[in-house]
Amino acid sequence: MSRKTDTANSSWGKVVLSPGETFEFHCGPVTVSVRSEHGELLLASGEDVSEAEPTRWALPGRERELVFAPALPNLPVLVEPESPFHLLPGASARVYLAIPVTVVTKAEVSGAVLHEIPSSVLSQTWFGELESGELCYRLPTALSREPFSEPQPDRITAPVQIRNDSTETLPVTRLCLRVSHLAVYCDGEGLWTSETEVRFQGGSKASRISIATGPPKEASGAVLVGPAREAGPVGKVGRSFRSLRKWTKDLLDVD
To answer: Domain check: are 96 and 125 in the same one?
Structure first.
């Protein structure tokens, strides 16, 4: 006995497996396959699960309830705009990132994560100074000034409100978004993160970053389907922007 689901046509959430049943969950190019067999769960994933070696899980008691949840990557993401733009002092702009979904499979009762797989393999890059930077994923889709017209089931839209609180012009040539504190919401058509507000302070000062609670205004009726990877305060500071000139100066030590 087997069942299949596609994230384009069904919601994320709980699945109860019967003994001997195989369940397949599809998200973009990847599939997660789970089979209940001899008191264990056999879990495999990939673009072709028939060739994947399954991992075996023995869950406590008679638990056969799983949750499939969308998650953001396990590292910050770095993205460039379609065209670099500038914010004058006091100006603001709202931008959008398209972030590939990571499919998380976890036990319903205990909440233990059994498996996670990204729907797209992202290349890694470095953001910041050599001594104090951080490893990030580079997004293949450019930063957009408008919401994406056609939501994709294997992409999460992350809205970011940028405000220039400094007395200098802010050139936006790349943006680093730390996604670990962002929750994921579904409005029936697409996936969204909570809103991030970045307030640029100027010069070498760290930006002031805050994360709103609940879904963004573009999807006000959306429901929570994926909790944030890390719980924590909604306000923090960090380096989010890099101008090309500053990047070159830091790495090559030239003016």
So the answer is: yes
Asked whether residue 192 is domain-assigned, the answer is: yes
pLDDT in tens, 13-42: 999 988 899 999 999 999 999 999 888 999
Are 80 and 198 contained in the same domain? yes
Which pairs from 85-90 meet CB under 8 Å and 24+ separation?
85/145, 85/171, 85/172, 86/169, 86/170, 86/171, 86/172, 87/162, 87/164, 87/169, 87/170, 87/172, 87/200, 88/164, 88/169, 89/164, 89/166, 89/167, 89/168, 89/169, 90/164, 90/165
- Reading the block at residue 58, the tokens are 């023995």
Domain hosting 182: range is 73-101+120-252
136 and 199 fall within a common domain: yes
Question: In terms of domains, do 61 and 168 share one?
Answer: no
Query: For residue range 85-144, what is the model confidence (pLDDT) as tens digits?
Result: 999 999 999 999 999 999 999 998 888 999 999 999 999 998 876 666 789 999 999 999
CA distance 151 to 192: 10
Q: List the structure tokens of 73.
A: 């990557």
Cα–Cα distances in Å, from 184 out to 69, 191, 227, 228, 251? 9, 7, 6, 7, 35
Domain count for the chain: 2
